[in-house]
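Sample pair:
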Amino acid sequence: MKLALAGGFLGSGKTTAIIRACQQLVKQNKKAGVITNDQGDQQVDSAFVKSFGIPTREVANGCFCCNYNQLDTHLQSLSEEDQPDIIFAESVGSCTDLIATIVKPLHTLRPAIETVISVFADADLLTSLIEGRSSFIEESVRYIYKKQLEEADLLIINKTDLITTTQLAAVDELIKSEYPGKIILHQNSLIEQDIAQWLKAIEQFTDVATRKSLQLDYDVYGDGESRLAWLDKSITIHAAHGDGVFVTRKIIRSVFDQIQAKHFTIGHLKFFLETDHWKEKISFTTTTTSGEIKVTDQETNRIKVLINARVQTEPGTLEKLIDEVLAKAAHIYHCTIVTEKWSVFKPGYPRPTHRME
């Protein structure tokens, strides 16, 4: 069985690519499963993947490396219950060191599983780094980003539709110079041919037992993760006049605008919307410049919203910002907003279950 580990920084497009790949495999009468991962236990991506009817498990409250046993349990569960031809395991966007902590332990403990690491890089973010306009001001955050690219088997330059051919050529030149020998794929995950190319590369890749573990400074790694505040909040909006979607749109736009106004760097800002009739995901990343969004425009008195915010600030500051937006919306639009479950924190120091040099 193939295990396709999908790494890459927050907002690089891993989830969209995985869903499209699963859909394409279903058309080929093949089975796929997905394991999502996050530092928290309320995952927008899990809810989104499940909404497509894809067999899904989730590793919560820490990265794959620090929850190896949970990952292993889910691999067994998917294999026994769904018998997938391939399992996609999407690591949390601030995680690296997959070779030493996941690939090598699996090779030793479960040699029948063939692993391939696809690392996704947002083409627009790479371009902004090259052109010196990236908002990644913390060197320890850049350190994680670079280490993720370093351990890729397949390096996916994703969202290529967002940059010019000249910019893409500059990205290629940088990647080939900094990370020689990588298999590089240009991808727009909304194009079937690009997903087919990625799936073919996964299928053809041969598990390399001699992969080199990263030389990784865990103090810098831990510092990089701690630069981001993580907020998960599940709310229900009760709008008496059927304008639940309108209110939700205003809340999402206001959260984004307030973060931008304070010049906080967005790692990833995600909203999963659910009514009795439809489900939808809204996403903003580091390179997003506009808060304009498109949401299914149907009248509803009740809408559930799950918020995942990963923002470069302090947890208390992020919590206050979002709570003020919600309170203001409830007052202005005469609706009731009920918070059902929430958490706000910074990731702890990474302590992997296994680490094989």
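The mean pLDDT is 94.
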